[in-house]
Amino acid sequence: MRFRPRFNLTLGLVVVTVMLLFAVVGPWLTPHDPILDADLMNSEMPPSWDHWFGTDSQGRDVFARVAAGARVSLTVGIVAQAINSVIGIALGVTAGYWGGWWDDFVNGVTNMMLAIPSLVFALAIMAVLGPGLTSLLIALGLTNWSWSCRIARSSALSLKSQGYVQAARTLGYGDGRIMLTQLVPNMVGPVLVMASLGIGEAVLAEAALSFLGLGIRPPQPSWGNMLTDAREAIRSAPWVTIFPGLAVFLTVLGFNLLGDGVRDWLDPRMQVRA
What we know:
By secondary structure, the protein is mainly α. It contains eleven helices and no strands.
């Protein structure tokens, strides 16, 4: 059986790959330092051969800052979602497999988390911890695990009655070993879909928190604080706003398309014969 390629999966994979390569290689493509090379004599210069994305109000190269910000924003998105996935899978698998009072407790906490917008929760955490990369990772890593937990729990509930799980119990496997070797590997697909969507959401949340001054501290560039700095220059130098905003848009779009494409690819109802 052969399957038709999914347009959203292909496009999402291309966009995500390009953005990851931009984050890795981009800072090496320009001789300008994103922080130190400030020249007020060349402030708000439009895009040119010397400054591909123009310069900001302090004369810093926008391309260099967008590339440096890509490393920060993508690192925050990936690490924060990794923390969310670990928490969500751990709680969901144990709740679905053990059931009882633990399942009721996890469900209660999950419902509470779903009732509070994750960005509002992250804002509260950042207000307590203060701005900075570590605080940002903690805030975003503790506020968006509820959907992963729901998926892991429902998968565990359906998988724990399968024959291979019963066989593992017969062979003397403990609960921890059964969950790690029998349940978790069989829920990788749905978890990957949620992780891909979650990375895009974390990148957007980082940009929002940095825009509000609660994220990455200047002069370290991130897409969010670049948009903050560009607010007053949106008319005189629109490129200072356009390029970091476009970077956020493409990154979130790419991860959303990737997650949507992986979901379609893993769903047997969406598979068609070539």
